[in-house]
């Protein structure tokens, strides 16, 4: 291998999914493995890559520019690596590309915790798997899927994200559909789906299968993640909304059958009922009322209009033209 070719390594597990689908729980399980460290959500893998061309100057990768961008990114603040540590790590690694620089930082995070391997967990990256797959040929994606009605209830109880059942249905449908579509394109060697419900009902078989997928021997410590919950949650935002990490695998923390009003169930299913059925989740309503279909269509149109306006604002701010 020449130095200009991608630096291959052990498989790089990347956990993705719609938020509030149990990705923090799965991260806690994997981070409790004696060989694997997964830092708090990074959020910078895709955003910094968009600026990757600015990290090159005079024909070489600029450690200075990359370090400044990384330290200044809000997603890096919980990692416990200061600027001096970042610079010394990169100086020792001599990265020639953005991907090599990222690998060096993840490796440093793992080494500082006595681990030999690293992974990543940022749910939003379910929308960017193809880009990340190109950046990191060793990446293997674990897509955690949860019943969207329970996801909607979880968001409603949180102090972040959407609280609207209809909008939750729109975003759940978008994220899950996109992840499954791109995952099929990546193929079974690089993409694996797991249901949240299976993970909490019988975690050991699910974890053994996922460990095999990322070439990691299963370790029973993964089942005892809750014994070190405070360590896992260090640097994580909204800690009070991740109570499952402090409990053994527990079913029924939320249950749409118990906690969601019939009209809310009908609205959610008017937007995302087809995907629920495709995934094998039961449906309460087989045919939504005309009013629910109209409300669902209105929510979908409103969310899409906001997305379009947001993209236009980004393009305008960058001086580009739509």
The first-level CATH class is given as: Alpha Beta
Q: Biggest β-sheet: count, sense, barrel?
A: 4 strands, parallel
Structural class category: alpha/beta
Helix content: 40-55%
The proportion of strand residues reads: 5-15%
Could you describe the 3D structure shown?
The protein has 322 residues and is of the alpha/beta class. The chain has one domain: Rossmann fold (3-Layer(aba) Sandwich). The protein has 14 helices and eight strands. The chain has helices at residues 23-31, 44-49, 63-71, 83-93, 98-112, 129-135, 148-157, 165-186, 196-201, 203-213, 229-232, 256-259, 262-278, 290-317, and strands at residues 12-16, 36-37, 56-57, 60-61, 117-118, 120-121, 139-145, 191-195. The chain has a four-stranded parallel β-sheet, sandwiched between helices. The longest helix is centred in the C-terminal third of the chain and has 28 residues, at 290-317.
């Amino acid at each position: 291998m020449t130095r200009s070719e991608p630096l291959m390594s052990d498989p790089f597990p990347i956990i993705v999914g719609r938020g509030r689908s149990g990705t923090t729980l799965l991260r806690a399980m994997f981070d409790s493995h004696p060989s694997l460290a997964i830092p708090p959500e990074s959020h910078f893998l895709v955003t910094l890559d968009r600026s990757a061309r600015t990290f090159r100057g005079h024909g070489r990768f600029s450690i200075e520019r990359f370090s400044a961008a990384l330290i200044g990114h809000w997603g890096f603040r919980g990692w416990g690596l200061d600027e001096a540590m970042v610079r010394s790590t990169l100086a020792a690694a001599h990265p020639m590309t953005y991907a090599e620089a990222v690998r060096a930082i993840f490796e440093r995070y793992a080494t500082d915790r006595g681990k030999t391997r690293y992974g990543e967990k940022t749910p939003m990256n379910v929308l960017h798997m193809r880009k990340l797959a190109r950046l990191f040929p060793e990446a293997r994606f674990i897509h955690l899927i949860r019943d969207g009605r329970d996801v909607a209830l979880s968001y409603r109880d949180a102090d972040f994200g959407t609280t609207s059942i209809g909008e939750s249905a729109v975003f759940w449908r978008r994220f899950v559909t996109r992840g499954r579509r791109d995952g099929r394109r990546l193929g079974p060697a690089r993409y694996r789906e797991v249901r949240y419900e299976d993970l909490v009902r019988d975690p050991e078989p699910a974890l053994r299968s996922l460990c095999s997928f990322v070439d990691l021997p299963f370790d029973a410590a993964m089942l005892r993640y809750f014994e070190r919950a405070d360590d896992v949650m260090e640097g994580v935002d909204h800690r009070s909304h991740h109570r499952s990490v402090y409990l053994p695998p527990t079913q029924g923390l939320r249950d749409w059958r118990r906690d969601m009003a019939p009209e809310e169930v009908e609205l959610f299913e008017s937007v995302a009922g087809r995907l629920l059925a495709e995934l094998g989740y039961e449906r309460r309503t087989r045919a939504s009322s005309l009013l629910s279909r109209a409300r669902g269509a209105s929510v979908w149109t409103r969310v899409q209009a906001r997305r379009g306006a947001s993209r236009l604002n980004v393009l305008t701010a960058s001086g580009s033209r739509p």
